[in-house]
Amino acid sequence: MRELDPVLVLAELTDGVVSRSTRALLTLARRFGTPEVVLCGPAGDDTLSVLGRYGAPIVRTLWGPGVEEHPTAACVEALVALAVRTPPAAILLPADHAGHEIAARVAIRLDAGLISDAIDVRPDDSGLVATQSPPGGTHRVESTVVRGVPVCTVRTEAVPLVPAPVTARARPFALDLPPHARAVRLVERTAVAPGQRPDLATAAVVVAGGRGVGSQDLFDLVGELADELGGALGGSHTATELGWCPRHAQIDQTGCVIHPDLYLALGISGSVRHRAAVPDAGAIVAVDRDPAAPIFTIADLGVVGDLRDVVPELLAEVRRRKSRPHTEV
């Protein structure tokens, strides 16, 4: 791999702002060569400024008939076309629902190797080496691609952001989507109202509830506890299925992986997928009525009790301590 080798990076905007995952991917991409961003849609001055700050001199902005209605297909077609034109050192994508789908389709089209859910990537003489954490988080695996261009989705929550400023320039990339790419189209966008809580993926304190919370009313108290502690609110897979917690706040391997200094798990039994999503939490405090709940196997402090009693008492105690002068919770 050479310094000037292109590294294709799929960029994401959140509410019009370059996402943290994109900035982290650019930080990683610079290990392999020169980042080249693929962005579905136009790039304003603020977007170019951020992308340039993290080392991307070229931003391919996708446009053409059907691009807005078929963003996933547009990204696939663009990445494939760019990789065929100039084979990149690697193709890096975020490890979210869209990133996984796009990566799989690109790898098939390019007849290339695919690595999913890497937590780190680095170059060596054989190419890209990806570090993965299997379910349970008990060990690490290093994987390489031995066929074609390495296509890799990366969980970037723990990747430090390192700027390397350059001047980013937008280069429009025209697409004429073939009929097969128009089979699925975007029909509606629903904006998620911005909240006052910290971002779940990067919060220092996370409070989460599961099935054991028992009701929406008690889950609302869990949210109040998160607010009192200045933390983010999350939920187990079951809590999101029951509608108590928004889908984007689901903590498990198919949702959000977290790295807080303090994780308070309330009424969460602790499935393998959930435990694997908190591998680097500083301190884990678990409360559940089942003394055999798997969550206690990774907890630093465990409390066996009824959430209907524990949560209100814990909330009251936090508020009481916060009300004292010169007292920190």
Automatic annotation (TrEMBL):
One of its GO terms (biological process) is fatty acid beta-oxidation using acyl-CoA dehydrogenase. GO terms for molecular function: electron transfer activity; flavin adenine dinucleotide binding. Residues 7-190 form the Electron transfer flavoprotein alpha/beta-subunit N-terminal domain. Binds 1 FAD per dimer. The keyword Cell membrane does not apply. Pfam families: ETF (PF01012), ETF_alpha (PF00766). Its cofactor is FAD. The keyword Flavoprotein applies. InterPro entries: DHS-like_NAD/FAD-binding_dom, ETF_a/b_N, ETF_a/FixB, ETF_asu_C, Rossmann-like_a/b/a_fold. The electron transfer flavoprotein serves as a specific electron acceptor for other dehydrogenases. It transfers the electrons to the main respiratory chain via ETF-ubiquinone oxidoreductase (ETF dehydrogenase). Heterodimer of an alpha and a beta subunit. This is Electron transfer flavoprotein subunit alpha. It comes from Virgisporangium aliadipatigenens.
